[in-house]
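Exercise: predict the fold of this chain.
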Amino acid sequence: MHKEPSVFRTLVRYFFARFFANDVIQSNGDTVTTVVRALSIAAVPGLMLAFFLQTQYPARDAWGRIEDHYFFVLYSLLVMAGAAVFEWEMLFPERLDFLVLSPLSLRGRQMLCAKAVALGGFLGLFLVAANGFGMVVLPLVSKAGFWRPVCAQGMAVFMAGVFAALSVIAAGGLLLCVLPARMFRLVSPLVQMLVVTTLGLLLVHYLRFGDVLDETLRLPGRATQWVPSFWFLGLYERVLHGQSAASFAEPMAERGIWATAAALGSVVVVYPLAWVRMQRMALEGAAVLTGKPTPLRDVWIERLISLPARRAVVRFIGQTMARNSRYQVYLAMYCGTGLALAIACSATFLRSTKGLLPGLSLYGLHAVVPLLLFWVVAGLRMALQLPLNLPARWIFRVSGAERDACVSAARVWTLACALGILCGAIVVLGMAGFGWRELLVQTVCGMCVAATMVDVLLFADSGIPFAQPRSPGKTSLPLMLTLFVGVLPPFVFGMIWIELSIEQKLLRLVYPVAFAASAHWLSHVLRRRSQAKLDDGDDVEGEFQLLGLSAD
């Protein structure tokens, strides 16, 4: 006889499935397929590097092996912190969960424990997937014993991943406990962006200075004591080599152990308090961050945008961005990545008798504006394509808003955000020492880049923002890799060369302006032709519910 699952197990399965039920990794009711796909993506890098090292690792010197160990520690930290940030709004139950589950005959402690178990299972799966293969394969190819390297790598990577995930959970719970609901919605994206920026800087540092890790660990002022990935690298070396480990290993290992214990204690204390706060906010009706009326902003919108339908869609985009935390998470991840790359390009380390000393790179500062604009526009394009408001798209048909007005409003919104980022970047570059000549070039080139990128990246968008269903096969991983790996580096280096060339002769500013104007005109013509074809074959059946009151 089939035994019915217990209430607790049902809750655990419900909360666990919610981690994978989102618009990026769509489960479509098949949680198992989504879980396997996500875990496979997390497992591939560690497994590939371990196999790649099978011929090189045994012949490497001591610091070369430490560099290889550092990759696995850093990767575990990046995966777990990234997973926690990506599921930021799911770390604690949503308002809908409390509204649906609270009227049932469930104890509050039962719901809390079920959510904690589901969260632990979610993070545990990613922790094992990201580190399991590398933890076994690397000791096999090292040819220097098996069990001791397995224990050393297992302790280091698991503690690094646990620390990263618990730190994000503790930060989110602390913000939830101490901030009002409206302020929490404002601060959360900034914290998420800061976490992603930190992770990006750690990864870029490894790619740039992994070969001189010994010099990095001897930086003046002991700045490396505050780098979490070095703590667990020290734990790795201490367990692997014992007393004969490098001098940095023992103090770093102690910091890693104490930091993990502190993160665990913080979560144990903060998580139940945040749970109670979320429950009270749900039952009392937490205020949604829709924004207070701002007459000055409305006046500027009316002056800059003449078409009423376009103004309405612009306001709709702003309110949707502020209301839905999922959009904020994605934008924070994109903006954090762009900010990390901009900081990495701007900062440099100079060799001296005291080791590596930090400084600013004049060449790298010219990459700040192109990098920030690229990631902001790419992030906004991705956010506008997320189909989270499909049930409401019929209102655009009923209101009589034309498709072109909706699409152009999305471009206007993206361009306005890009220009706002450009203004902030110009202020920072001025503080970094750029003169009026350099700032003029950065301003003009930045405006041209923003306008051209909006025309290029949003050229194929022909649907209503947030209300366009996904087309099977439209999102291609090779296409995305080509954009971010094959197109971005040449674009950035090309912009640096153009900016340096224009600074020598300001009359050359005519070229980027002419190019941006030509690209805008061409995209406008092609878009009008494409729009005409869509309007000719437009079929509204099924887009919104009809009442069946026609004369036929």
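Check your answer against the key: The radius of gyration is 26 Å.
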